[in-house]
Amino acid sequence: MIKKILLGAFCIAQFSLAYATEIKNESPKSSTVSDNYQKVPKTVIIKTSKFKIRIDLQPNGQYLYQSWGVNSKITSKPSMIIPNGELIPDGSGGNYYYEFNNNGFVYQVWRNYLTDSATKAPYTLMVTDSNGKTIVNQDGRVVKN
């Protein structure tokens, strides 16, 4: 009888130890800020009231900004190309923006996940000059991503 009790206790201890090892090796899925940014598309095409904008992730990890007039075809030569852009997280809710620098002007394309308005466009183009004055502020809609 004692042998059966000791064998049962030994088996329980072994199963408990094995289960504890499995739990320890599993990494818990936590919602981190970086998880929100994994959903950033490699290519997005946005249309504002005056421009069509294409943003592409390049092999070097930076972004390429290309823009056309609103009535131009994207298959034509872009009117502006700005390389070496970067993706900048904004807060912990998933918002982010792309930032490009060109001849003293800063081009920012904001992704608006969290807004106060249900009618707010999903993207906003902002261009500021070297003095920090905003010269373009246009909402945009996704054409393709």
TrEMBL record:
The keyword Signal applies. Keywords: Signal. Residues 1-20 form the signal peptide. This is Bulb-type lectin domain-containing protein. It comes from Chryseobacterium polytrichastri. The lineage of its organism: Bacteria, Pseudomonadati, Bacteroidota, Flavobacteriia, Flavobacteriales.
